[in-house]
Amino acid sequence: MVITLSPAHVHLCPGHQLWTHSTHDIPLVALPEVIKAQRRLEQLARCHRKVRQALDMARKIVEDWSASGMPIDLGKEWTDRLDRVEALAVSKKISAEDRSHLAAFPEIVMLTHLILDPPTTALDPKELYLATTAELSRFARIYTTLGTQDPLYRRFCLYRERDGPVSKSGVSS
C-alpha cells in the first residue's frame, strides 16, 4: 500500500488506469469516459487556479440533483457505469458513495468546465442560469429547468450573487 498526496483534481492514475479516489483502487478499463473526463479536468486545472472550488461546487450540484430529482436524464448512463463497476472483482469492497461519485464523474467534470468557463458573460443570475442550462442540454440531453428550486440555480447563481463579484474563472472571489 502506497499513500500519496495528489492535487484535488487528480482522481485516477492514468498510467495504470486506476481510479484512486476511493478506499480501493478501481480498474477503469471498462470506463473510458472516466479517463477522458480526468484528462479534461487536468486541462482545466492548467488554465484555472480555482479548479478545486469549481469541482467541489459541481460535485455538490450533482449530489443535490441525485437527492432531489434529476433535471437531466442521466439515469441510463449512471446505471450503465455502475453495472460496469459492479462487474469488477473489487466492487464488493467499494462503498456506495465512491461508486456513485465514479458513475457521476464525467458529468461533474462537464459541470466544472461550465462553472470555470460560463457560457455567457452575463452577471444576471437568470441569464447565467438559462445560458448554462442551454449548454447542458447541448452536452447531455434536454435540461428541465427547475428555476430557483434547481440546485444548479441555487449554487451557481444565487450563491454568486450573495458572495460578491464573479472572477474571470467563473468562481466567486
* Rounded average pLDDT: 77
Unreliable spans = 161-170
Largest sheet: 3 strands, antiparallel
Helix content: 40-55%
What is the strand tally? 3
Distance between the termini: 39 Å
List the helices and strands and how they pair.
Elements lengths: L11 E2 L4 E2 L6 E2 L4 H16 L3 H18 L6 H12 L9 H21 L8 H15 L11 H13 L10
Antiparallel strand pairs: 1-2, 2-3
Question: Could you explain how this protein is built, in words?
Answer:
With 173 residues, the protein is mostly helical. 55% of the residues lie in helices and 3% in strands. It contains six helices and three strands, in the order βββαααααα. The chain has helices at 32-47, 51-68, 75-86, 96-116, 125-139, 151-163; strands at 12-13, 18-19, 26-27. A three-stranded antiparallel beta sheet has the order 1-2-3, with no helix packed on it. A hairpin with a 6-residue loop joins β2 (18-19) and β3 (26-27). The termini are far apart.
Can you tag this structure with a few keywords?
173 residues, 55% helix, three-stranded antiparallel sheet
